Amino acid sequence: MTNPSFIAVDRNFDDLAERFEKNISAGGKGELRRRIIRADIERVLGSRLRCLNPPLRVLDLGGGLGILAIELAQAGHHVVYNDISVKMTERAQTLAQEAGVEAQISWHTGPYQQFVDADDAPFDLVLCHAVSDWLAEPEALFPALSNLLVSGGWLSLCFYNPAGMVYRNLVRGNFRFLDKQQRFQPDTGSLTPPNPPAVEDVNRWLAEASLDRVCASGIRVFSDYVLEKRGGLAFPEQVAEREFTYATQEPYKWMGRYLHYMLQKS
């Protein structure tokens, strides 16, 4: 379980915005994550994504660069964007302007806690990707998400899988690190969350918030663990296709460095 004293405050990515865009969002990792998330949303919502009578009311909470929010706005849905980072919000607005939909998105900058009672709520679909990993009190996020949804509304939740860090250390032979049960201490500017909640805790908090899981996928289920890029591993396109194929398959999906859930409010 997350130790609130370890993450004193919710993480603001103002100092990491450029690095995040360059190393994650604009690269293969970011595109793979979006591809898997898009597929899960399509699998669950189906034709409702293409029905604009009425359009979906969508909230992208902790929206980062807002790429999926922009895509949903382009599809004609009513989109609200929120992020604690001013720099992230400004960059997302630039991308939305380039896509011709800046005016179609309602922009909010600030912590999600200030957004819970927003006039825009409730929503049909909430996107919440890699937010809980960086909060001082992640357990408080899930009832807030539930309150932001209409009855029967959908939550797209993406979060870091701590088991991936353990497995990575196993295959790299870092046994002393594991024996000492040392807490991961990322370098300054690291994009790896220092103390993400255990999957078991996330599942329990979701159940307590009346959010029922409909499907689950793993993001980066094998490529992050590779030490030697031989054979097909030397070809990024082939790796991406295999990652996409195994993202939804048991038991491989549970080894993803990130997990993506589609949930429905009961």
Automatic annotation (TrEMBL):
Signal among keywords: no
Catalytic activity: 5-carboxymethoxyuridine(34) in tRNA + S-adenosyl-L-methionine = 5-methoxycarbonylmethoxyuridine(34) in tRNA + S-adenosyl-L-homocysteine
CDD domains reported in the protein's UniProt record: AdoMet_MTases
Organism from which the protein derives: BD1-7 clade bacterium
Domain Methyltransferase type: from-to ranges: 59-156
Similarity comment: family membership: Belongs to the class I-like SAM-binding methyltransferase superfamily. CmoM family.
Keywords: Methyltransferase, S-adenosyl-L-methionine, Transferase, tRNA processing
This protein's name: tRNA 5-carboxymethoxyuridine methyltransferase
Domain of life: Bacteria
GO biological process entries: methylation; tRNA modification
Gene3D superfamilies, per the entry: Vaccinia Virus protein VP39
UniProt GO MF annotations: S-adenosylmethionine-dependent methyltransferase activity; tRNA (5-carboxymethoxyuridine(34)-5-O)-methyltransferase activity
Function: Catalyzes the methylation of 5-carboxymethoxyuridine (cmo5U) to form 5-methoxycarbonylmethoxyuridine (mcmo5U) at position 34 in tRNAs.
Assigned EC number: 2.1.1.-
Pfam families named among the record's database cross-references: Methyltransf_11
Binding-site list for S-adenosyl-L-methionine: 33, 62-63, 83, 129
